[in-house]
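note to self — DONT lose this again. spent like an hour looking for the file last time. sequence + predicted structure for the chain T wanted, 118 res
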Amino acid sequence: MPTFWDSSIRFDLLMSDTIGDLKMDRLSEKLKAAGAVVGRQTAKIEARADALIAREAEIEARTDKAFSPHEAVLDDAGRGLDDLERKLALLSNDPLDGSGSSPAVGQAATFLPIVREG
């Protein structure tokens, strides 16, 4: 016949298992909750990024509208640079020398006599 102490030990073991299960359940729930934090925070960050991306078209339209009066100035500057590039190309390519090279420094250039007919 079990004694009081035997029953008490069984009760303690039963309670110990139950408390251990409760602790494990609580820990499991906390781990699940912690894992969900990552998903929620990632979604918030993506939502903020999406909001910024969505504003791009609006900002681009406002920028185009605000900057349009200055386009003529930029076009003129672009044409000026194009003209400068053409002039630099002419300077770097000696049109009288078929080889495209100039005489070295200190070397005399060869001149051909000009013959006039008539």
